[in-house]
Write a structure and sequence with these properties.
Chain A: InterPro entries: CsrA, CsrA_sf. The structure holds 2 protein chains of 2 kinds. Chain A is built from 2 helices and 3 strands, in the order E-E-E-H-H. Chain A has one domain (11-73). Chain A is of the alpha+beta class. Chain A has a 3-stranded antiparallel β-sheet with strand order 1-2-3, with no helix packed on it. The longest helix of chain A is centred in the middle third of the chain and has 14 residues, at 45-58. Chain B has one domain (11-127): BH3618-like (Roll), CATH 2.30.290. The longest helix of chain B is centred in the middle third of the chain and has 6 residues, at 68-73. The radius of gyration of chain B is 14 Å and the shape is globular. The relative contact order of chain B is 0.19. The chains are: A alpha+beta, B mainly beta.
Chain lengths: 78, 132
């Protein structure tokens, strides 16, 4: 892992168009500002990991599971 | 060659779904007559599909705020043309809906992305009940 030391107000560039700026450091809490192109999504790591896991779990359900959900969502006959 | 999209309009992901970086194009296949359940199906690999549903009938109080960055990523001109779909995880015991990260589709530009509603407090796994 590359390790850099930065002060508040200083930035790091990743590639040509991602800029991460240290806005404030207070104890063990660091506030970062992130500028990235719109097709680069920025997430807190734990949120991204949780979403990735949830998506993988949701992906490609079995036919039985699809049938169960379809039945659950069926509006009863009038 | 058979068109795997079956002539349905192609939806392009402005940003790939977390966990599925290689899948950029999807079609929305309707699974029931009421229009409550769809399969968001990858064109690259039709084996990959997500069950999705409009959240309103199931979560009437669900009213997420969509940020301007999403409009610009989807090239949205008219916010009324955005379609919100919640990703469903079908289980034997229970079925859940991901309210934290809905898929937002712009029906004019046919661009979409899974939007993380940071700070909203919405759950990743909300239990779904019958629509009636």
């Amino acid at each position: 892992m590359l390790v850099l030391t930065r002060r508040a107000g200083e930035s790091v560039m990743i590639g040509n168009d991602v800029i991460i700026t240290v806005l404030e450091a207070r104890g063990d809490v660091i506030r970062l500002g992130i500028q990235a192109p719109r097709d680069v999504q920025v997430h807190r790591e734990e949120v991204f990991r949780e979403l990735q896991a949830a998506n993988r779990e949701a992906a490609s359900p079995t036919e039985d599971a699809v049938r169960a959900v379809t039945e659950m969502l069926q509006t009863p006959e009038e | 060659m058979i068109d795997p999209s079956l002539g349905l309009p192609t939806i392009t992901m402005a940003v790939p779904m977390p966990g599925f970086p290689a899948h950029r194009e999807f079609v929305l296949v309707r699974l029931n007559d009421d229009g409550l359940l769809y399969a968001f199906t990858s064109i690259q690999d039709p084996e990959l599909r997500f069950l999705v549903a409009p959240p309103e009938p199931f979560f009437p109080d669900y009213a997420p705020e969509i940020e301007n960055e999403v409009f610009s990523a989807l090239n949205t001109r008219d916010a009324d043309r955005l379609l919100l779909l919640t990703v469903i995880t079908a289980g034997v015991e229970e079925t859940t809906a991901n309210l934290l990260a809905p898929i937002v589709v712009d029906r004019d530009t046919m661009r979409a992305m899974q939007v993380v509603l940071s700070g909203s407090g919405y759950p990743v796994r909300a239990i779904m009940h019958r629509a009636y």
